[in-house]
Known about the structure:
- This protein is mainly alpha-helical.
- Helices cover 61% and strands 0% of the residues.
- Helix 3 runs parallel beside helix 5 and helix 4 (96-102) runs antiparallel to helix 5.
Amino acid sequence: MGDLRLTRENVDFMIRVQARDLDLGTRDADEGKRLTTLSVLHRWRGIARHLASGATRPFVDDLARAVQARRTYLERLQAGTAASSQRYGALQQNRALFDAVAIGDQDGTTSLARLGTLARPPRPRQDIDEWLLEYLHGLLAEWPPDPTAAAAAGRTTAAIAALAAADPSPEHDLVEAFEARDGAALSTALLALVEQRQARFATDLTLPPELLATERHVWVLGIALVNVARTIGIATADEHPTIPGLLLGLTSPRPLAPESWRTPS
Length: 265
């Protein structure tokens, strides 16, 4: 895992720099970049503090800041006080949605799912990852769901159809498992996605060391997926690689002061 103390020190420094640059920036377009980057940095900080201590509270507290940072940008975007951005309005940049699910923040989950969908710029084509994100945003826009509702209710049917029409992929298998409420198939899809991620971590030499020290060992999206599965009644394994059981089913993030994302906790 590397030197987690050094990772935390680096991330703390980067959080302060991003907040300072946001205050000094002269271009509105910087707002999306800065706030989205701050969201990522708080996620890394929460993972690093959990890995160093084994405690869940630091993980919850820092991911709550990640949610707050991204939500701040999306709310400013909707209010017209931040400029729209082809890059930072994209669903791929709205990963804080899964931070919210991971820490049991229901209000943050529904807000980020809805605001993220509204902010998404139109694109003529989407890849497998984008269709999966679109499916999950549709699923989480009303959260928690009615467990008695039909499996396809509230989903983006276009995303389901696109994934079904694509070449076989773990993403497609994951959505099929959710729609069928199939716990065994879900575990198989999660393991395939874990292997896919680990292969990227092992071969992509451009990834920052802070990401490798944190997200290589704890997969927040995976935690969120298992939490979603359990909420809609799918039985899951107690844990999967990089999805530790200790971090599943977390609840009750503490209320944050406004703009807590500006500083490390």
